[in-house]
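Weekend entry, working from home. Most of the wet-lab plans are on hold until the incubator is repaired, so I used the time to fold the two sequences that have been sitting in the queue since the last round of cloning. Logging both here for the record. First:
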Amino acid sequence: MTTTRNISPTIGEGVYSVPDAAKILGFPINKVRRWIKTYWEDKFTGDAGAYTWGEGRDRGFNFHTLVELIAIYALREKDVSFHKIIEARAFLQQELNVEYPFASKKVMSDGKKFYFAINKTALMDVNLKRQTSIKKLVEPYCEKLDFDAIDTLANQFWPLGKDRSVVVDPNHRLGEPVIAGTNISTDVLASMVAGGDSVEMVADIYRLQPKQVQDAVDYFERTHVAA
């Protein structure tokens, strides 16, 4: 790979902390912190540059790293070793010629085609015993992703599903969850409702549909419970 990664946030790539990622994906914060340290900081970083920026617990990363956490979650939940995951990602980078293989359409758009490297010379389709279980873990998240048809990398994540209004898009508010088609933060809407305003009043203020405001409230309640 010849790509050089930035060591600071770039407009359009999103900015996420470990707590941000844990809330958006619904993963335990301690696992996300450990995975970022184990993989993107200790093992994945090489001559091309760093995947994270900042210091200590304030370290951040971009949207494609956020999406790649989904693959790490699925593989670790099925006890795939750290060594095998590191080897798989390195192989997929070369095989697919993409910097973030676990965020690529070829890997994540279809659970049946969720590939991972068995060694440096072969890939195995996910259709055997353990791989089938991995497919079942990844599939619900695949269905929440949209992909850029040009470079085949994920460009949107719908945490509540595509039938709801909340979207995580690195091109809007640095990747903060917003109402689709707007720059309106879900936190702003949910905080107004929590403060006593009705869903209908908030919708009228922001020229939204009540369902969109309710989606923001539902998302806030889900992430609040997860936290």
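Second, folded right after the first finished:
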Amino acid sequence: MTQMSRVPTASLILAAGLGTRFGGRKLLAPIDGCPMLQHVLDLAAVAGLRPIVVVLGNDADELERACTWRDELRVRNPAPENGVSGSVALGIATLSRLGAQRVAVLMGDQPFLDPDHFRAILFARGQIVVPRYDGKPGNPVVLDHSVFPLARSLQGDRGFSQLFAAYGNLVTYVNLPGTNPDIDTPDDLG
């Protein structure tokens, strides 16, 4: 598959969550013989996103051994218990230093993202591009570099919904059918 986006786009993969509802080590859970995180890494690579920054947490050593890595830049969140905002700030700071102009933020626990949906999100224009599945905002979110400071200012574990509410004028929604489910518990794997 060729580059999915018409604009050069980097990727930030958030993979530092504690996975407490799952019982821990969530991103190592096997799906079709590979760790859950591997599916997200593969999607970003196939989409032609560059650079790819992956923020890892407490299970970083195990994930680094279990996954097949390409040229992803791996950074570690020293305090994942403080919520997703710390991982976002760390990842955006890293991408800013690398000169990224646009970034698709993927969640490590969403291994079933439809490639056609991802393509539609990547091709949309806007400062904050947000998919809506059956009317509900979801992930992945695409950010233009002009809103990187807003992303770095997120607090706690609520993620990008803080931006949607506070800066609605900057949000472009892409309406999509179906869902992009999070894997929160072992039952979510089927």
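Plan for Monday: verify the second prediction. Residues 10-189 form a domain with the Spore Coat Polysaccharide Biosynthesis Protein SpsA; Chain A fold (CATH 3.90.550.10).
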